Amino acid sequence: MIGSGQSVHHRRQSLTGRWSVPRVFWQLPFGARNRFDLFDSAEHTERNGTRAINECKCKVSGRPSHRWWQTTSFLKMVRSVILALLLSLLLHTSDSKMLIERHSRPSPEAYRRHRELLVQKEANLALGADIQLTANETLVNEYLMSLKRAELEEGFTDPYQFVPARHFFQVLDKIDSSPLYQLIRRMPKGGVLHAHDTALAGTEVIVRLTYEEHLWQRGTFNGWNGPEFLFSRTAPPGDGWELVRDVRERTGADRYDDAVRHLFTLYDEDPLNTYKSINDVWSRFTAMFFSFQPIVTYRPAWETYFRESLRQFDEDNVMYLEFRGVLPTLYDLDGKTYTPDEVVEMYINVTEEFRAAHPRFAGTKFIYAPLRNVGNETAGQYLSIAERLHLQYGSYVVGFDLVGQEDLGRPLIDFADLLLTLPPTINFVFHAGETNWHGMQTDENLIDAILLGTKRIGHGYALQKHPLLLDEVRRRRICVEINPVSNQVLKLVADYRNHPASALFTTDFPLVISSDDPSFWRATPLSHDFYIAFLGIASAHQDLRLLKKLALNSLHYSLMADGEKEAAVAQFERSWSDFIELTWARLGATYTNPRDEQPFQYARDIPGASDFASVALQQKKKKPAAMDQRPTTFEEFSRQRDEFLGREQGRGLGADLVLSADEQRLNRYVMQLKHQELAKGVDNPYELISGRHFFEILARLDDDPLFRLIQKMPKGGILHAHDTAIGSRELIVRATRHEHLWQCGNVTGRADGDPMPSFRFARTKPARSEDGKGEWRLVADLRKSVGDAVYEEAIRKMFTLYTPDPLNAYRDINAVWRRFMAMFISFEPMVTYRPVWEEYFYGSLEELLADNVTYLEFRGLLPPVYDLDDRRYSPEEIVQMYVDQSAKFLRAHPQFLGVKFIYAPLRFCDDATFDGYLELVQKLKSRFPTFIAGFDLVGQEDLGRPHTDFNERLLRLSPDINFFFHAGETNWSGRSDENLIDAILLGTKRIGHGFAALKHPAVLEEIKRRNICIELNPISNQVLKLVQDFRNHPAAFYFSDNYPVVVSSDDPAFWSAAPLSHDFYVAFMGLASARADLRLLKKLALNSIEYSSMSAAEKASAIERWTAAWNAFVQEALRTIPEAEN
Predict the structure, then answer these.
(1) Does some domain include residue 798?
(2) 635, 839, 1042, 1084: which sits with the fewest CB atoms below 10 Å from its CB?
(3) Collapsing DSSP states into helix, strand and coil, what is residue 991?
(4) Is 993 an annotated catalytic residue?
(5) Is 693 marked active-site?
(6) pTM more than 0.85
(7) Is residue 1040 within 8 Å of 652, Cβ to Cβ?
(8) Do residues 245 and 275 share a domain?
(9) Cα separation of 999 and 1069, whole Å?
(10) Residue 821 maps to which CATH number?
(11) Active site residue: 993, 1000, 1033, 1062, which one?
(12) Bridge partner list, 222
């Protein structure tokens, strides 16, 4: 450990010295291309600063700071040769100018060209980009996109009306009336590759089955619990059995049928409150299967149900079905039971009958999928059945899987030795990663599924948190079966825009859309899932090509034989062509063709479409690499698994740090506390802190020993916070104790939704209220009338977004932002009174230090500060106040590392106002060169002006003014998230939030290549309604793949959070893997120094001082650990 005689081995070069030639070259400014004194140039003080940091580390660790190959003379000799070669190579490539980081701003023309290249690069990567549309397909696509844009625009204007942001049950009627949905319903969608046998047909089929003769019931309908059912000629054994016919007659047919509908669906008008946790909904889900089974396993009902399922799939324009089933024991009225082999025969016979009557239907295949929550003896029996069925029905029974709730079921690793005994000709098609846990046995089923050679992955929801596995799935072309509606209904995701498939759609990833158990949530066989995927998961730019690609993928990744695939693709092409012609014919009378009319081309004439099956067959015939083969022994499997885990953990943030012996002791205690808390969440997900809203668990954290430990931990700096929301509510309360404060409007007795009061300091009563209606009253008098305690508690309640019912209090992102901005507006005249302004800022620094934060880079608008003499202070004077208060604080608290300011005015402005911002920031930088870190724009991104409105002006700014842009603080894709592109091309040093960056593969590539730090603010993102469950935050991916990130807090005062400790805790428990340990926390602290705007010398000093504080913390923590844990 730094400072205690231990070496820290950083794999990344950012702290240990940047001597690699490619890194040097990327940092080379255009003006210095032909100069080879780079290391000594003033433009590269940061590089020299990194050397200084390295020398500082060498001093404290006892290592020599330079070796002979690190001497300046040797480096100058080598760099001259290598840089010349690299320049010669790279300056002759087409993209060289875009790829080189510049210290100067590009011209507007060059900028636009580079932006077009980056946008086009992302467009070319997207799923479906390889599809070429015919003339008429293009016209249909224009109509399709007009419908899509209309729904997106409605949702952008009023987020509560955006269907994919709501629960499926709440918007089902709206979806069914959507013209976009109706068009998708008519569209040929290929096949469904993930569905379960007893949840295929709609609930009305079950209602009709209850009209069959000889059906008996015992018990009554009582909420989620229903009666027992059984078909029998006579009353079944036991008391209480009645014929359903008699019960229906007594109850009334309509009432009885409604009770059946309610019993056999998860649908509920208030799903968010009905199902509090994933276990709640899964308990109901599982109970439905058991209640339903005695009805549907009656042989005549079984055949009727399956036949009706095929009819409904065909009506939904699904031409092929691969379904999973447990092969339950069927029975009839004569007491005969049917074997699994006979059940498969029924499937085959019904399918052939249906195909004879519906020749465009390609058929069905079956995947044997028994329950995973069984002992090894039962599992062995399952495998024997699988092997027998494979031998007898190999062309129909095409795979094996294990099903049931992954979180509570046995993991694949428990069955690996048994599974490896199966013949390699039996395809595995495993459910894996149907969870939002990370680093637990559930999501690590993904590792086992891949190593066992699965052909497809069911759900794969957690795959995005495993970058190594993502690479492996892509390389092996393992198809992921995405089931969007299922994932929401079963409580994995609330807003479809946060579904991890949104990132997979951005590249040509092997995936299909399926429906899982559509009848249990009143969904159509596939159209609802296609609609949700197209509107809510895909980018706003993705079009008909995506839908066609998804349909083709469902045939390509099916387990049909080669000849069957060819026939299916040919049939799909005919159906698709008919759909295009019919749609165009419907539009022809009303829709204008903006292009010259061209003859219609059938899909088989599209480059790449007619050869689809043959390409698929060629890929299938390729001999797999040795490591892609299923391991032949459990020992080999275990070796590969250990290697995977080691490689994956070595790729995570903080894995490059080596802990000292004392740190390892502390780490064991930290991980014990972490795993204890996670175990509570496994037992009862509703108790999982990281799975709940921050407001709901805030009170619990004060008693959490891990949180208290994180509070004491030196956390480095905050790089993203806003000036008037850093200090706690207690500082606001303190402000109300000042003399001469006036108030207009109510503080006490306010109801939710009442307007916020206005405040103003003045020696005499202000002339009138802001709106001319209210009356100004002295706060001192109001305090006396209600009592100080009552008034101050009302202030605390008013200046926070906290509410005990956050999910219902703010219905959408715009609602919470309105309340958020209202607090700023109300608070501003109070805090901008000069004595309060200085007191608040100084008090904020005190609170940061108390939370063991020792550095601050904060953003501010520089609103007009005033005094009782009605003097208005200039921006320069306000910054001087910050400088003076900072200096005063540093004198009193020398352990604090420093303060810097980012001028960040609102993005809601006209061009003239914006020009004034740029003029001001240049003045401020000139006057306060070391205090002013740079420039940003703030405010709700979704509703503010985009960066494209300002780019040409921003390019005129001097290069010595750094950018630290808010960008991607949104869950939209293809709209305000494109600020990320501009932020990067403008040369931003850091990105504020970057929530949507995961949906932009080219942006992610540039972030890593340019080493642009993402400022994560997890609690802010949840409170401001970007994400509901912290485990769905995109930072889980950034942490897993060692992205340059820091954790900050944004506006902690307004959600009653500590300056940084709460965000650190949430990041550690909710964003990071369960395996992430003390190294992650230490790395986040170090990153806050590395990616700060401190000078090289300041960084070197900061690392040395932070290391000393860290070492002291470790020793103090070890002294306070309970003896048993120590």
Answers:
(1) no
(2) 635
(3) strand
(4) yes
(5) no
(6) yes
(7) yes
(8) no
(9) 24
(10) 3.20.20.140
(11) 993
(12) 225
